[in-house]
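Milestone 3.1: sequence recovery, worked example.
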């Protein structure tokens, strides 16, 4: 049976120990534990997802084009004009992995990604600027459904969440340190096995090389 956010929070709470810590039935209930879980869960999750390009959170997103500009560069005695595309930065994107003009195999990660920069327009809009036409973004997305997580990531995340909750629920520094050490070891194990998934021996994958 797939875990829910409440299940993961209860696993984290159980790892803190102590008879004063109660399990929760909803992130919206009035208990101190539920309020802290509701605060900590998205914060810890974003940090954990950004730290590594997890397979389960990798997603392809066709980028919405906002406009085009031009950049002038000199090549020997000639002037080379390159058209730069301005794309809307997807809200669910936590970490850009590659930008390519084709779909399939997670952004055609066997090819070198187009160069890009992330900028802010004068009105504050966050954009991706690249010369890639009709860009497909390969990114780590905000995957907040534990039902799609790898089991080893779930285990590591629960240890990390336990460490964060312990700070807010009166745990001792020694317990916090112990929980953090457990989280670190669990994440290293999860990363080690995750990087082996989807490897294709016959071709060099720039995307997989970046995961090492």
């Amino acid at each position: 049976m797939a875990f829910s956010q409440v299940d993961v929070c209860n696993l984290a709470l159980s790892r803190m120990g102590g008879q004063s810590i109660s399990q929760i039935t909803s992130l919206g209930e009035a208990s101190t534990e539920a309020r802290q879980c509701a605060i900590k869960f998205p914060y810890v999750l974003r940090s954990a997802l950004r730290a590594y390009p997890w397979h389960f959170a990798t997603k392809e997103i066709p980028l919405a084009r906002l406009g085009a500009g031009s950049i002038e560069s000199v090549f020997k005695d000639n002037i080379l004009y390159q058209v730069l595309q301005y794309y809307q930065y997807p809200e669910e994107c936590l970490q850009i992995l590659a930008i390519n003009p084709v779909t399939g195999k997670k952004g055609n990660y066997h090819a070198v990604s187009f160069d890009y920069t992330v900028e802010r327009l004068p009105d504050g809009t966050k954009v991706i600027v690249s010369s890639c036409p009709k860009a497909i973004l390969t990114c780590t997305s905000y995957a907040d459904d534990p039902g799609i997580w790898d089991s080893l990531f779930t285990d590591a995340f629960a240890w990390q969440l336990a460490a964060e909750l312990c700070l807010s629920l009166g745990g001792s520094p020694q317990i916090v340190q112990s929980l953090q050490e457990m989280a670190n070891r669990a994440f290293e194990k999860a990363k080690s096995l995750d990087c082996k998934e989807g490897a294709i021996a016959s071709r060099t994958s720039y995307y997989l090389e970046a995961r090492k």
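The helical segments are 5-16, 32-50, 105-108, 151-168, 173-194, 206-211. The mean pLDDT is 84.
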